[in-house]
Amino acid sequence: MKHQRVGDVMSDAVVRVQGGTPFKEIAHLLQDYDITAVPVVDAADRPVGVVSEADLLEKMWGAEPDGSAAHGAGTAPVGAKASATDAAGLMTSPAVCAREDWSVVEAARVMARHGIKRLLVVDEDGRLIGVVSRSDLLRVFLRKDRAIRTEIIEEALVKTLRLPPSSVQVDVTHGHVVLSGGLPRHVSVSVLEELCRRVDGVVAVEFRPAGETDGDGHASAGP
């Protein structure tokens, strides 16, 4: 089974700024486009950082009334970005990027690893071509149950395990997959369940052997 790619779910309409873009212009862009961050690119349109709402807010809590950087007990500024006036000084760098041929699973893992809400998508030359957010990745769970069931039968049962499509009954409800029936000895339940979990949109997988009853006391269907 192949997961959807980043290129399938990303947005290619990306608001961007360069290092010299002033503070207030960035604030206006975030408000006008209803976004929470904007990538900073160089002259070749390659991402060098990201300015987020959090970066801008350091101006509020990290500066003295006269606009100078606030200091704590020592000599270092409480917020180094508090005195910044343009994107180059405000941005968080380096930017964490993805490629459009990454799977959505790979993108989700990178987001989790770095604790970020979005990834910039670059081409083979490192140029910015899109952005993918957590909400974009969650779209895979909006897949229709029928599409999930079809992929499990065609890809997992037939193509991968080389079983007849009617060998196992596959029922999908709101992403919950219930497999029922019997399997040949050379196929393990754990392998089949793992193949199903790899299908985009699957929330949970349950296998019920032939003759086992469900929660309502009804017998599971056979193969």
Structural features, described:
- The chain has helices spanning 6-9, 23-32, 53-61, 87-90, 104-114, 134-137, 145-160, 189-197, and strands spanning 17-18, 37-41, 47-52, 97-99, 118-122, 128-133, 168-173, 176-181, 204-209.
- The chain is α/β, with parallel strands linked by helices and 223 residues long.
- It folds into two domains: 6-140, CBS-domain, CATH 3.10.580; 143-209, 2-Layer Sandwich (Alpha-Beta Plaits), CATH 3.30.70.
- It has a three-stranded mixed β-sheet with strand order 1-2-3. The protein has a three-stranded mixed β-sheet with strand order 4-5-6. A three-stranded mixed β-sheet has the order 7-8-9, covered by helices on one side.
- A hairpin with a 2-residue loop joins β7 and β8 (176-181).
- The two termini are 22 Å apart.
Q: Give the strand content.
A: 15-25%
The tally of strands reads 9
CATH superfamily of the largest domain: CBS-domain
Strand order within the widest sheet? 1-2-3
Number of continuous helical runs: 8
Shape: elongated
| CATH-defined architecture of the largest domain | Roll
- SSE class: alpha/beta
Main pleated-sheet profile:
3 strands, mixed
Rounded to an integer, what's the Rg over CA atoms? 25 Å
Number of domains: 2
Distance between the termini: 22 Å
In terms of quaternary structure, the protein is single chain
User: Mean of the pLDDT scores?
Assistant: 87
Provide the CATH topology of the largest domain.
CBS-domain
